[in-house]
Amino acid sequence: MKVLVIAEHDNTKIAGATLNVVGAAQQFGAEVQVLVAGFDSAAAATEAAALAGVAQVVSVDAPHYRDQPVENVAVLVARLVRTEGFTAVLAGGTSFGKNLAPRIAALLDVAPVSDVVSIAGVGRYVRPIYAGNVMVSVESDEPVQVLTVRTTAFAAVEAGGAAPVRDAAAGEDLAVSRLLGREISKSERPELAAARIVVSGGRGLGSGDKYREVLEPLADRLGAALGASRAAVDAGYVPNDYQVGQTGKIVAPDLYVAVGISGAIQHLAGMKDSKVIVAINKDPDAPIFQVADFGLVGDLFETIPQLVEGLGVNQ
Amino acid sequence: MKILVPVKRVVDYNVKVRVKSDRSGVELSGVKMAINPFDEISVEEAVRLKEAGIATEVIAVSCGGAASQETLRTALAMGADRAILVESDAELQPLAVGKLLKAVAEREQPQLVICGKQAIDDDANQTGQILAALMGWAQATFASKVVVEGETLRVTREVDGGLETIEVKLPAVVTSDLRLNEPRYATLPNIMKAKKKPLDVIPAADLGVDVAPRLRHTQYSEPPTRKAGIKVADVADLIAKLKNDAKVI
Hints:
CATH architecture of chain B: 3-Layer(aba) Sandwich
Shape of chain A: elongated
Oligomer: heterodimer
CATH topology of chain B: Rossmann fold
Number of helices of chain A: 8
Number of helices of chain B: 6
Structural class of chain A: alpha/beta
Strand content of chain A: 25-35%
Largest sheet of chain B: 9 strands, mixed
CATH superfamily of chain B: HUPs
Radius of gyration of chain A: 21 Å
Number of strands of chain A: 16
Low-confidence stretches of chain B: none
CATH architecture of the largest domain in chain A: 3-Layer(aba) Sandwich
CATH class of chain B: Alpha Beta
Strand order of the largest sheet of chain A: 5-9-4-1-2-3-10
Number of domains of chain B: 1
Strand order of the largest sheet of chain B: 9-8-7-10-6-1-4-5-11
Structural class of chain B: alpha/beta
Low-confidence stretches of chain A: none
Order of helices and strands of chain B: EEEHEHEHEHEEEEHEEEH
Number of domains of chain A: 2
Shape of chain B: globular
Largest sheet of chain A: 7 strands, parallel
Strand content of chain B: 25-35%
Largest interface: A-B, 89 and 78 residues
Order of helices and strands of chain A: EHEHEHEHEEEEEEEEHEHEHEEH
Mean pLDDT of chain A: 96
């Protein structure tokens, strides 16, 4: 068996999610190679080669992979699978991986498996369905296993490898799509999906200004990433990439602080694997309290500043 | 421009699903069903493109049992012009649905397919990408804005770091994200009108596609439920608990 991990990168750096995907790939106990398809992407390839447990990095460097259009990358991966005999292809359960993996699978005429949280062997997986309210065991005899893996379910590999980087020929440029621009939120805070502490706000904040005024000092004090419920995103308090939940980001930090979030099942689906959950809400019957380890019933506009002050005093 | 909108009948999003006692599946008998919310957004987008004079015809299509006619009627009531049911009582997995939709697309020759980014039952998030690959078309997934510009689409996508805008050549597959639009409620007159709109039923077997499931779902279970913890008295109590008991700060 030979596993190919599709690296997510910006031609310079490997995304954190890829470290977890390599961690998942190691569960097969087989050779793991990492594909870095990009343009002027030697730096990313070098970084991938330094990951522990990687046997080889396949570098494909051509202008039509600069922004990694999914159509071009899928054709390339399908060719690599056919010519080099890979029997599994793994990508992260990220917007990048979810966009790409089913397209690769269809080109290979195999059924992909999404959002795998546990790998018991080749073709033996567990994945969540119904917004994480049900877990299903999946068996697949497909000759090529194409998976996306939930990154929070697998430990990230560390640096410490020294794999060779080999060049492979570019595939066809289908030229059917091109990137016009990205509006990527810039933040000094930790990345939401990988943060140790997440402070998340909901409709209870009342406005985008209040969201920032109340939650930013708390996040600063805790060194936390900021998240939000769908309701807060829909109301325009924060951009879409803050959303935690079934259709947003899945997080599993050591500490999740839900502020003014009622706790719809779609939100719980995105955070209920957190180690410790704190809920602060003025409604004592809010469903969020049913999953919270520590619940504080109270007005968030009073309690959060007190919390910020209290944390300062004690540190 | 003809638009094809695949729709799926799923358990209503308000229903708390339960696993059957023998763990062979999810309890569906007597459960309220509805159109997949992301597909509803897709129907809305297609109907808006028709109202804007860009689309000429909106065709809703569903792959599934006879009960999916109900889902198609919902799409018709929202403004789709006609509907096609690819009827099958067998389990249809995303790869099979992709192949059935390809067969329908080859008959209907749409310029654009808009489908939901995922169904809220299996949460697979695969069908649109699979269809695009099988057709050899461009794909624009997780769309929050779609603008038709002649022979191309300009699509804003919701991605992990924020938003990105891509241009794709038509024909193409778009998959809808939550913020693409807010679907309308079907009015009573439109619900009545929808009953008279054409709904063709094609047996899946007539499309000459291998729809045998490739994956076996061997066991369903409910994840360990998190127990409610304790209510703390005040902020000082909370800080003490987090430091001394949970040791997370």
